[in-house]
Amino acid sequence: LTAEGVSDDRILDAMAAPPDLERAIDFYDEASRPVIAAAAEAALRDGTPFDLELGFVSASGQHRWVRALGQAEQQDGRVVRLAGLFQDITAQRHAQEAIRELSERLRLATDMAGIGIWEWDFTTWRIHWNAPMYQLHGLPLNAGPVDAARWLTLI
Fold this sequence. Notes:
Layout: E1 3-6, H1 9-15, H2 21-26, H3 33-46, E2 50-57, E3 63-75, E4 78-88, H4 90-113, E5 118-121, E6 126-129, H5 131-136, E7 146-147, H6 148-154
Parallel strand pairs: 1-4
Antiparallel strand pairs: 2-3, 3-4, 5-6, 6-7
């Protein structure tokens, strides 16, 4: 059984050649190894596909984030091969982390400054308020959801 479908040339170069499954698992970071090993085991055992985002360490020691998709191929109800796709998603993960950090900073700043923020969903006519919006309108946080009609009575 071999790992097939490695699509990122930089990572393939780091491996030198498509590795066997055990060697391929060794390229994942310590936290990700049991996750990918369990996914591969389930795929080999009963054909369960997987789609995971995991940490990966190249042969040069560079940590990357990868998306690993696996699909077992079966013949006569028996798994004969595990094929998949491998994609470097490091840039996307870094962008997601930057957005998360900025969102947390914005939340802290608006909470500390008592700035009310609202968002109006025009498909449902529901309005989402942050905690300071409730305070600015003299409502307890557990006052329930706000819709347009209720907000208009408060203005």
